[in-house]
Amino acid sequence: MARFMLRRCGETLLVLLIMSFVIYSLIGLMPGDPLDVMLASAPGVTPEVVAHLRAIYGLDQPLLLRYWHWLMAALGGDFGFSRSHAQPALQVLAPALVETARLMLSAFTLSVVLALVLGIVAALRPGRALDSIISLAAFAGISVPVFWLALVLILVFAVELHWLPASGTTALGEHGFAAHMRHLLLPVVTLALFYTGQFSRFVRAAMIETLRMDHVRTARAKGAPERRVVLVHALRNAMIPVVTVMALSFGTLFSGALVTETMFAIPGMGKTIYDAILGNDYNLALTGLLFATLVTLLSNLVADLAYGWLDPRIVLT
Amino acid sequence: MSVSALEGAVVVEQAVGTWRLRWQRFRQHRGAMASLVALLLLLAFVLAAFPLQPLLDIDPYATDLLARFDPPSAQHLLGTDEAGRDVLLRLMIGGQVSLLVGVLATAIGGAFGVMLGVSAGYFGGRLDEFLMRFTDGMIALPLLPLLIVLGALDLTKLGFSAEFARSGAAGFWRIVVIISLVDWTATARIARASTLSIKERDFVRAAWASGAGPLYVMATHVLPNIATPLIVAITLTIGRVILLESVLSFLGFGVVPPTPSWGNMLNNAQELVTQAPALAIYPGLLIFITVIAVNFLGDGLQHAFDPRSDR
């Protein structure tokens, strides 16, 4: 187990290192470079001065050398300065990470709870009307474009009914807990719907399979109450594959969070990265993308470990 | 001669039987049948742009700022958009673009995934290890932020000419390529797993023992026998790809205006929601219907191909 953990951590670090180089190179291929952005506000600079500035900033050096310098600085905790926020990139991203974590965790929790209820109910009588309705809803959840769902929810609940705010967030202490929740409600529902659909299909499939197993039949034969058979004997075994899928999906919530944050103007990681790319804020985009990669990789690592912990039959080597 | 003819006849008979059985099982799946009809209707809808455009005599690209958000009329059956263009025609043409991106990116990414997965499964060992680590690494990346960066790349820095970089064709192919670059992992894994289960079977070993090369064995024995799980996986990929295209185009990093796509027709969503809510509904609704139909189709195929599944 210890060896497995060590190897997985090593792999995660390696992927992160490779990705840092890939992202660094890609950012370099985006339109313009930091100097173009500077010169745009200072016309009439001679080519000699431009060449000189390029040398000063090291932009004339080969890619590998520039990457090396960046990597060394980054390992020392210096991720550069965000142009558009006029702050170190890390200081911009720290509060954004909190916003995104809150959105992702709330949506994840909501979808897990809903999926467990819907999946179990559907699995109890497969093929019946209730199962068909839940299945249709699950398909709708995984098929709806997130940005359009956000648009429709804004249209209905904010523009037409005026029940909920269309955008923004409030800090917890600022306008009280109720205002905080009202702002969070639409984004969380938007993000949670896709995963509710996906998870409930996994829960249903796993439950149907487990309910057919011998130990469930034995439990019924002994006269255990149906509630206990389903919620204890079956659910426990069905959860092993389901938990893995759920944990593996957590990292992918980031993509959905990016769209949700953009639609509801939440200052999270996704929106920060999106705005940084739109605004040629290279350092911020680079650091944000690395953070996003780290978040995804770490959640996959946790998923792997959870798998071995849940099912003692699996020996991780 | 007669024996081989007989064998051929038996094989053909069986093949017809299998597919007829599958078609029967597919027809039992009401959702999948309804989806098949819905998809055919959608296809007819987007192709209707070809006869409709000369009939109504409208240029779907011509802007008319005096006719912004016009209500539906005899000429503009669904009204006009924020630049005074005909909404109905743009929905049709945008649909052609979105569907074509979906199919092309799935085909390219799928072909890559199948090649990678089959090679990994067939050759095994170090190659398998390496390719699967590569696939796992791909799966662990944040998809959308990466696609946005790829969509923002300056094509001239990659050696393309400036004219090409600005052309509509570049915008179209860029999105096809970048989506197929990332969305091959599911296909690859399924291809590998299926290949592993088939490669130790006697008929594959017999082919191998009689001197067939790996390429020949993969093409004639492995691929046809792993086709069914792949068809299901690839069908489901189309739905995912259409969703990815729409969100990228919506965010401004996919299909670029003036070429319409169901995603970029919602670019001005904020304005649409307040000024003309119906225009914010149509494109998304079409994406939704397409993707849910494709997903049901995949589910129906899975049901039809898997004799054990009884829903």
Summarize the helices and strands and which ones pair or pack.
The complex is a heterodimer of chains A (317) and B (311).
Chain A: H1 2-28, H2 34-40, H3 47-57, H4 63-75, E1 81-82, E2 87-88, H5 89-124, H6 129-143, H7 146-160, H8 176-211, H9 214-221, H10 226-250, H11 253-264, H12 269-278, H13 282-310
Antiparallel strand pairs in A: 1-2
Helix pairs in contact in A: 1-13, 5-6, 5-8, 5-10, 5-11, 5-13, 6-8, 7-8, 7-11, 8-10, 8-11, 9-10, 10-13, 11-12, 12-13
Chain B: H1 2-28, H2 30-47, H3 49-56, H4 87-123, H5 125-139, H6 143-152, H7 162-166, H8 168-182, H9 185-199, H10 202-209, H11 214-225, H12 227-251, H13 269-275, H14 277-305
What would the keywords be for this entry?
heterodimer, A: mainly alpha, MetI-like fold, 2 domains, 13 helices, 77% helix, B: 311 residues, mainly alpha
Task: Describe the 3D structure.
The complex is a heterodimer of chains A (317) and B (311). Chain A contains 13 helices and two strands; from the N terminus they run H-H-H-H-E-E-H-H-H-H-H-H-H-H-H. In chain A, helix 1 (2-28) runs antiparallel to helix 13 (282-310). Chain A has 317 residues and is mainly alpha-helical. Helix content of chain B is 74%, strand content 0%. In chain B, helix 2 crosses helix 4 and helix 12 packs antiparallel against helix 14 (277-305). The model of chain B has no long low-confidence stretch (mean pLDDT 83). At the A-B interface, helix 1, helix 6, helix 7, helix 11 and helix 12 of A face helix 5, helix 6, helix 12, helix 13 and helix 14 of B.
- Looking at this structure, what is the CATH superfamily of chain B? MetI-like
Major β-sheet profile of chain B: none
- Topology of chain A as a string of helices (H) and strands (E): HHHHEEHHHHHHHHH
Largest interface: A-B, 53 and 46 residues
The helix tally of chain A amounts to: 13
Low-confidence stretches of chain B: none
Largest sheet of chain A: 2 strands, antiparallel
Tell me the count of domains of chain B: 1
User: Quick check: average pLDDT of chain B?
Assistant: 83
Percent range of helical residues of chain B: over 70%
Low-pLDDT ranges of chain A: none
Q: What's the CATH class of the largest domain in chain A, please?
A: Mainly Alpha
The count of DSSP E runs of length 2 or more, i.e. the number of strands of chain B, is 0
